[in-house]
Amino acid sequence: MANKEMYTLGSQSSVIRELFSYGQEQAAKVGKENVFDFSIGNPTVPAPACIRESIAEIMATRESAAIHGYTAASGDTAVRQGLAQYMNDTYDAHVKADNFYMTCGAAASLTITLKAIVEAPEDEVLVIAPFFPEYTVFIENAGAHAVILPPDTEHFQISLENLEKAITPHTRAIIVNSPNNPAGTVYSADTYTKMADILTKKSAEIGHAIYLISDEPYREIIYDGLPILYVPKFYANTIVCYSYSKSLSLPGERIGYILVPDSVSDKDVYPAVCGAGRAMGFVCAPHLFQDVVLKCLGQTSDMNIYDENRKLLYNGLEEMGYDCVYPQGAFYLFVKSPEPDANAFSEKAKALNLLIVPADSFGCPGYVRISYCVEADMIKRSFPAFKKLIEQYT
Amino acid sequence: MANKEMYTLGSQSSVIRELFSYGQEQAAKVGKENVFDFSIGNPTVPAPACIRESIAEIMATRESAAIHGYTAASGDTAVRQGLAQYMNDTYDAHVKADNFYMTCGAAASLTITLKAIVEAPEDEVLVIAPFFPEYTVFIENAGAHAVILPPDTEHFQISLENLEKAITPHTRAIIVNSPNNPAGTVYSADTYTKMADILTKKSAEIGHAIYLISDEPYREIIYDGLPILYVPKFYANTIVCYSYSKSLSLPGERIGYILVPDSVSDKDVYPAVCGAGRAMGFVCAPHLFQDVVLKCLGQTSDMNIYDENRKLLYNGLEEMGYDCVYPQGAFYLFVKSPEPDANAFSEKAKALNLLIVPADSFGCPGYVRISYCVEADMIKRSFPAFKKLIEQYT
Question: Which residues form the Aminotransferase class I/classII large domain (chains A, B) (predicted)?
Answer without folding.
Answer: 34-380
